[in-house]
Structures are given as structure tokens and as C-alpha cells.
Amino acid sequence: xxxxxxxxLNTLAINVxxxxxxxxxxxxxxxxxxxxxxxxxxxxxxxxxxxxxxxxTAAFLEVTAVxxxxxxxxxxxxxNGELDLDRLEKGEVPRLPKTIDFTVDFLRSGLPRDAYAxxxxxxxxxxxxxxxxxxxxxxxxxxxxxxxxHFLMPQKRV
Length: 158
Prior knowledge:
4 helices, two-stranded antiparallel sheet, alpha+beta, 34% strand, Thiol Ester Dehydrase, Chain A
């Protein structure tokens, strides 16, 4: 069961070009999904500090929120056979949640090291979802950024 989900999550991530470009990976432990942004020199926005670019940080948080929502949204489709792993692996990516708004709080500079993020779904309906995301580096109780976003959930095509 979890193996199928891990496979579908990895395939979904590979088929979203920006996730691949940034090198974001995902680790699932039980029902908890952690996004991992491995440090790369190309992520530096201010070489004098050095610090991770704010746009990279915001994108990392937004990707974490979308993938967390997608996990919830797609799980049922995967379980009832509506989502076929073979088709997913061929690049037939299902529609993902669309961002309505996304507000980022930069709490401190992202240092030149790996970053981690987790999202918590505050509200999830058929049409709309609200998500809070927190990112950290060395200490998971010391966030360097957090965000709140609202998303339009994919609707079945008629």
C-alpha cells in the first residue's frame, strides 16, 4: 500500500519540472510527508551572507503544500484504481491543486545547507483547501520560513 503511494509520489514529483530543477525530494514516514531541499550553490541568492534565495524558499514551501494536498487528494484515486501507476509513469500527470494565494513569512536567512519542510492541512473541502507550511534546517523547532496558502482543488471533468 505505502509502496504504491511512494512510487506515485516520486513519479508525480519527477513530472513537475520545477521540482526536478530545484532537486526537491520527499520522505514519507507513516502518514507524515517531509519535503527535502538538498543544498546546491545555484540556490544562493545573496552570496555575501550566503543565503538561499527568497524565491527558492517560497517555491519550496509552495511545492510542499501542493504535494501534501496532492497526497490526500490522489490517495483515494490510487486506492480505487482511478489513478493508474503505469499511466502516471508515462507522464500522464493528474491535475494538481492550483494556488489561489500564498503568503510567506521569512523568519531568518536560509543558510547554505539542506532544508526541510512539512505542511499541515487546516481545511480541505471538495473545492478549496487551506494549508500551513513550516521550513527548518538543523533544528526542526527553529523555522527559517513559514507560509499559509489557499488552493483550488481539482474538479472532475464533466
